Amino acid sequence: MSYNASDSLPRPLPAVTLDDVRGAQKMLSGVARMTSMAHSHHLSQLVGTPVHLKCENLQRTGSFKLRGAYVRIAGLLPEERAAGVVAASAGNHAQGVALASSLLGVRSTVFMPVGAPLPKVAATRDYGAEVRLHGQVVDETLAAAQEYARETGAVFIHPFDHPDIVAGQGTLGLEILEQCPEVRTIVVGVGGGGLAAGIAVAVKAVRPDVRVIGVQAEGAAAYPPSLKAGRPVSFPQPATMADGIKVGRPGDVPFALVRNLVDDVRTVSEDALAGALLLCLERAKMVVEPAGASPVAALLSEPESFEGPVVALLSGGNVDPLLMQRVLTHGMAAAGRYLSLRLRLTDRPGALASILGVLSVADANVLDVSHVRTDPRLGLTEAEVELHLETKGPAHCTEVRTALREAGYTVID
Questions:
Q1: Is 65 in the active site?
Q2: What is the pLDDT of residues 84-133, one digit of tens each?
Q3: Which end of the chain, N or C, is less surrounded by CB atoms within 10 Å?
Q4: Where is the ACT domain (predicted)?
Q5: Residue from 54, 65, 204, 246 carrying the catalytic annotation
Q6: Annotated catalytic residue: which of 63, 108, 301, 315?
Q7: 54 is catalytic
C-alpha cells in the first residue's frame, strides 16, 4: 500500500481487513513462531476467572515487532527493496526490522538514540542492520531516519502507522483465537496502537463478542484524550519505564481502528507495571519488559473488572538488565517486599548489633546498612541508621516497624 504516515491525514484512511490479516499470516508462515499460551494459576485466582498468558516475549527478536516489519518489507516493490529500508527505534522495532530485512535480502539502516541500551544495539547489529546512533531522545532519532530516507531514497519503515504493519501484528489475534477458542477478553498493551488495532481487526471479524482492552502507562497515555477528541492528539513529554509503549501520539491508521473496534483503553501506574514485571518473573517464570507486562498490570489494578476467560498478551521480553534491576527493586517495594527506614538511636558500643538482633527475631533480611554519626540534625550522643530490608509483604513490614518501636527505637520511614 502507498500510505505514508508522514503525509497529512488521508481521507479516507486505508482499511485493514480480516483478509489482510490472513494474508499476513500466510506470509509469516515459517518466519514468525506461533508462541505458546500459558495458564496462570495465580492470576486466575486473583481475577476469579481463567487467565492465560500469550507469550510473545518468546518470539524471534524477543517481541511481536518482527510480524509487522516482515509483512511491510515483504510487500515492497523490487525497486523499493533495492533502495533499502531505514527505521528509528530504541529497541524492539529496530530488531524486528533488522531481522526481517536480513531474511528478505534487503539492506537496512537503523537509527537508535545515543543512550539506547547496549544489548539492544548489539542485537540489532547481529541481526544484520547498520546501526547509526543519533540523538538523545527518540524524536531526534526519528527525524534523522526520515532525513536519511529523503536523501537516499530508502523506504522508511514506521513502527506502527501503516496498514501492512497493522495486518502483521493482527496475526496475533488469529493465534489467540486458535489457541484459546473460549476467550472472552483480550488485554494488550498500547503505544502507537498498531498491535491493538491489528488484534481488534482480526478478533472482531471472527468473534465480535470478544472484548479487546488496551492498556497504556499513565505517564504516556495519549489514547484516552485522543479518543475523547475524536482524533489523534499529542501527549506532552511522555515518561514511563515502559519504553515499548512510550509514544507521544497515536498513529493515524491504528487510531481509526482502535476507536471503532477496541472496547476500552485503560491506564496503569508505574507501581503496577513494576509489580506486574515482578509477578511475571516470580510466578510465571517469564522475563518480560515493562511494556509487555502492562496487561498483567491492568489485571492487578482492577482484577474484578474482566470477563473471562482472559488472555493477557506479553508482547516483549527485551528488558535492559540495569532497568530490570531497578524495576524489580521498585516492584518489591510496591508489593511491600522491600522496606527502607531510618532509626534514631543513642550512639554507644553495641547499638548496631542490638538493632540487628531485633531484625533477626522479626525475620527480616538485611540488604544494606548505613550508619551516620555526624549530621546537624543529630544530637551530640545520637546516631542514625538507614536500613534496607527484604520483607514478606505489607503485614510483615508492619510487624518489623512494631518490633523496632517496642525495642525503644524511633522509626522514620
A1: yes
A2: 999 999 789 999 999 999 999 999 999 998 888 888 899 999 999 999 99
A3: C
A4: 340-413
A5: 65
A6: 315
A7: no
Contact (CB, 8 A) for 94 and 87: yes
> What are the domain boundaries of the chain?
18-63+162-331, 65-156, 336-412
pTM: 0.84
